[in-house]
Amino acid sequence: MSSLASSTVLLRARSSVSALYGFALIALALAFTHPLILLAVAAATFGAARLSGCQRQLRGAVAFAIPLALMLAVINALLVRDGVTVLWRFGELPLFGQIDLTAEAFVYGFLLALRVVVIIAASALLVAIVDPDDVLRRMRRTAFRSALTATLATRMIGVLSRDARRMDQARRCRPDGGGSGRRAQLLMVGSVAAGALDRAADVAATLELRGYATRVAPPRGDSLPYSRADRAVLVSGLGLLALLILGAAFGLASFEPYPRITIVTGLNELLYGALIVLTALAAPLISQKGRP
């Protein structure tokens, strides 16, 4: 990684605020289909990647996303028949019926493709700026017990499933066939639940004997004060979330593809897109010096 990338604000910030910044960009791309807003989010994403030295990761992600997005655009144009402006009539096709290529379906498919590319690019930026080791370090207070719980639960699923099959086989071997109907099902569920509780008690006792109950929790990962880079990225991330809420509350950048394309584009939308770009790039444009 270059010296610029190693000193940029987005990469110096702690993982929690960098993740907030990345998720805010993804949320904006998910919330709007308006082309102007999608282009603004794309400009903010690629600008942040440029200033952070993460262009290579984004280029790889976009190269992967473009074929997928084009396939989505073609499928939408061929299968959606809600538009009223017919560009081409393909006639009747088996299993698909009448195929009409409409301008509305074509444009909306293109915008869906653009949205897919922007979301994947923003996700690639999120992966590039968030340090996975720092994420694990800050989650170690809860991650250990969560991982242990998930492991035990996954292991117990197979054990309880085998117990249920064996109980069902034993029930069927009875002279009367073990009964039938809802009562037999309730008895089976009760037996499996009782076995699960017994096994849970045994596992808990074993873990207690091995010292898991007396394990001291590690110190909090966010005990250090927020640095200048943390505060800058946090302000940008919260600003992007505030813009998302503002746009949704006031109905900015409205877009209706069917039955006719209706795109509201005015001064408000232009200012809104510019604010997204400026807010997103405010943190990366801060001085590239080290931590204070």
Task: Report on the architecture of this protein.
There is one protein chain. The chain has eleven helices and four strands, in the order αααααββαααααββα. The protein has about 290 residues and is mainly alpha-helical. It has two domains: about 5-135 and about 230-280, no CATH class; about 140-215, no CATH class. The strands form two sheets. The protein has a two-stranded antiparallel ribbon. α3 (about 15-30) runs antiparallel to α6, α3 runs parallel beside α10 and α4 packs parallel to α11. The longest helix has about 35 residues, at about 140-170. The two termini are about 20 Å apart.
Short structural description:
This protein is mainly alpha-helical and about 290 residues long. The protein has helices at about 5, 10, 15-30, 35-50, 55-80, 105-130, 130-140, 140-170, 180-210, 230-250, 265-280; strands at about 85-95, 95-100, 255, 260-265.
